[in-house]
């Protein structure tokens, strides 16, 4: 058995059973347990609070409708997280179809500064650099580095190929390094 993920959220089987029977208090408890993790994931993927809130609501509605489909052969949070990722990616695809320009405007970048807590200058700088990336590239970086998705999982979620995921990760990493002016050369002193 593999060790639990650092992102694992244990849910008592009794709570899931009560929710499957339609108990409103059990659904309310599940909502409270997963509201913050789903919202945070959606915010990281979409980069916009309003869309993250919409993703949260849509995810929870799907949880309500599809809880009977959860068989328990995988962790509950992994199952729910996949629903949230799919909802966020669907919104990004819709936004990209409607958007003429992939680059965020200065006003959007300034408004997104408030998304990250001002704990350190580096965190804020990274947040601005991530916000400046195209939606798809930012999503791949976040899913890979923060959520621990494999390239195969990212490709499947996005309906793309593994090489697409790898190229977006490489492209995003290069753009972040350039924006953050990170020197990738290592000098060995001997």
Distance linking N and C termini = 44 Å
Regions with little confidence, pLDDT below 50 for 5+ residues: 1-6, 100-107, 109-120, 184-190
Output the CATH class name of the largest domain. Answer: Mainly Alpha
Secondary structure tally: strands: 0
The percentage helix is 55-70%
Calculate the mean pLDDT score and round it: 77
Number of domains: 2
- The amount of beta strand, in percent, is under 5%
Write down the CATH topology of the largest domain: Rna Polymerase Sigma Factor, Chain: A
Written overview of the protein:
The structure is a single chain. This protein has 190 residues and is mainly α. It has 2 domains: 11-100, RNA polymerase sigma factor, region 2, helix turn helix motif (Rna Polymerase Sigma Factor, Chain: A), CATH 1.10.1740; 104-184, Winged helix-like DNA-binding domain superfamily/Winged helix DNA-binding domain (Arc Repressor Mutant, subunit A). The protein is 68% helix and 0% strand. It contains 9 helices and no strands. Helix 3 crosses helix 4 (76-98). The longest helix has 23 residues, at 24-46. Mean pLDDT is 77; it is low at 1-6, 100-107, 109-120 and 184-190.
């Amino acid at each position: 058995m593999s060790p639990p993920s650092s992102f694992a959220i244990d849910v008592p089987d009794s709570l899931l059973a009560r929710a499957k029977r339609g108990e409103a208090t059990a659904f309310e408890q599940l909502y409270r347990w997963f509201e913050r993790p789903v919202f945070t994931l959606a915010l990281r993927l979409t980069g916009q609070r309003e869309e993250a809130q919409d993703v949260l609501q849509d995810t929870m509605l799907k949880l309500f409708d599809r809880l009977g489909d959860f068989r328990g052969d995988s962790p509950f949070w992994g199952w729910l997280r996949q629903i949230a990722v799919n909802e966020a990616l669907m919104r990004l695809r819709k936004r990209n179809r409607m958007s003429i320009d992939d680059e965020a405007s200065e006003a959007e970048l300034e408004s997104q500064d408030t998304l990250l807590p001002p704990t350190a200058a580096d965190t804020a700088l990274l947040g601005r650099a991530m916000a400046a990336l195209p939606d798809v590239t930012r999503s791949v970086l976040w899913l890979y580095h923060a959520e621990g998705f494999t390239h195969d999982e990212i490709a499947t979620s996005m309906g793309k190929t593994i090489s697409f995921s790898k190229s977006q990760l490489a492209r995003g990493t290069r753009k972040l390094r350039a924006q953050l002016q990170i020197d990738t050369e290592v000098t060995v002193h001997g």
